[in-house]
Amino acid sequence: MVNKPLTRAGRVLFCLISLTAPVLAADQFFTPPEAPFIVSTNEQIVRVILPSAGEQAPGLLDGLLGHKTDNTVPAEKAQAAIDEARTANPNAFLLIETRGPVKVGDRPLKLGSRMSLILSPSGGVAAAPGAKAASLIEIADAEMVAVTSVGPGVAQIDGGGQNVTGISVTGGSRINLDQLVVTRCGKTGISYRGKDEKALNQAASVTRCHFLANVDGLTVESAGGFQCLDSEFKNQTGTAIAINSLNSMVAGNIFDGNKTDIRSGSDRGVIARNVFGSSDRALDLTAASKGNLVTENRSGTNAVTFALAGETNQLFGNTVAATVKPAAEAKDIFLIANRRLEADPTSSNVKFFDPPTLNNPHTNPVIVAGMGRFDLTVPGGKKVPSTPETKDKPPKIVPVELSVVEAELAKAQAEHPNDVIVIHLEGEYVVRSPKGLELPPNSCLLMAPDARILADHGIAIEPPWERAAEVTQVILLPKTGYSSISGGKIDAGRQAFFPINANTGSVAVIEGTCVVGGARDGINTKARKATDPIFVHQCNVYGNAGRGIWSHVATRVHSIANVCSGNYMDGIDLDAHAVDCTALFNVSNGNRRHGVFIEEATLGLIVFGNRLEDNGGSGVHVWNEEVKGSTGPNVISANVCRGNRRGVSTGGRDDDKTADANLFFNNVCQANREDGILSGNSKAKENYFSQIVVGENFKKDINDPTGAAAIFFSTVNPKAP
After folding, report:
1. I need a labelling partner for 411 at 20 to 30 A (CA). Which of 102, 127, 187, 352 fits?
2. Is pLDDT of 161 > 60?
């Protein structure tokens, strides 16, 4: 292979990206789509080459005489070719390909519905000197439009420092923008205004893009489910991302050198696993923001600012060197288990909880605002020293009764009523009471890595299911205040219903704990309220007779970066009327039913970035069996589903029990035992599948029943018919 020298534009672009390389790398979630079609199996594809195919190519004599060929295409000429192709083919999908740069002067290049502009990395779209157009590319009142690079590498949208917007979208629906460099735009790199702010099945995306030296990078308004993934935002003089999008996802992005990195007025969106650099303000949650989850973001050594307004926004598990500045009018800001954040925990609008955990066993005096700290250690059973007679036998351990812990805890609580009690457990414990250990309000259970609590109720394992049976558990969370469990193993011995029962209240963290052997489910969160979010983080949930993590008639249950395996039903079940719950970055493998089950009229759920393999049912199954209403709209995005019966699937039971209008974005559905995608049935309609990745499934890559009326759009480049 011969390495060709870069063009001047290529060298400039390479330097812009290389010289601003981040200190920290962000996780990557987007997978290049692989699909047998763009929108349907019977689509008509028409290719439009810019400049037009009738333009005479340079001859041999021109080359010998050193004449240079200018492949630049004026936007007016490109527009004429596009308009001519649309007039001749009104129902076709147009694949518009460039040979060289498109120069925009007085008018932008306009794209309509069912068009994909595929740019060359050596070409792109640029503003001509003295350009008067308001934008370089205009997409107005259109759906199923894409702008992307033919690859390898990115294509450039260059405003040339002039007062233009790179790509302007108004009234957009199902727009995908991928692998672009948007640079030097005097207004905004990409401005997106959607058609319907609540329709997740009209979602748009910006993926693998670079925003360099614009005034503002990306603005998003009136668009549900917007996906901004794996992009880079550097040196915007204004705001890198300004987003107002229901159930949006901003993840895997890198920010540096902007005035403001993320300004969000979104309703129940997720901002996760981004990397912040040296911008003035990393995060600005506006007064319009509500119920957002900001989690597992990171930063380098540069101090940044988090400005927080709005209400019920939740910041959990971030490792960012940031000063938190809550707005006076903000309401219920949850600051939970973050590292390196500087905040005043006593602010009246802040709910602060910093529990010591297995991975962060800190000794900070402030865990809950306004309370002290008291540490209590109750030693557990240890291995009995071996003798010559027992040296070849398994070590014997005499466990300590958990009632001893309960008594010591009650004593500590009575003597330290104004302190958070941190209970340290080391060794083996046994619980014989069906009610288990009820943690008091404002308590933290911190177990050594090899500590275990085992249930032994003296009954047969896996007691038969009875609706009216008294609930049993190993640990019961308190009804009020704050609580946490971290480390060790909580083993229900297949006798207690739940290793952890969280169907009470309290703002709670369960982190780094093995949750095993529930006669029903691993972690039960039934009927939790929005006022008490719970964060299940980095746990190993396995071998339970029902679900691993069960969110049932519950709000704000967040399952993040757990491993759920070998459970008799689902790894994670988001069940009847669950609202605003998330399942992010989990591994859910080898469960008897589904990796993640979304069922029974749930809505506003975000299932993102999970690895779901070798489950008996689907990687993600969206279904409604018996609850009136629709399971949806929900967001199912960037999950890897392999080795299951099906990758992703959806369906409903009856006309009033449906699963409609969900967003399935960029899920990898390969090598499953039956179908990669089952798109619905007559009771599950208008689900949107975008940027899909399918292949090597045993039966069908895409099983698309006619009655499902599913919607597909992916930026693939199938061979011409």
Report:
1. 352
2. yes
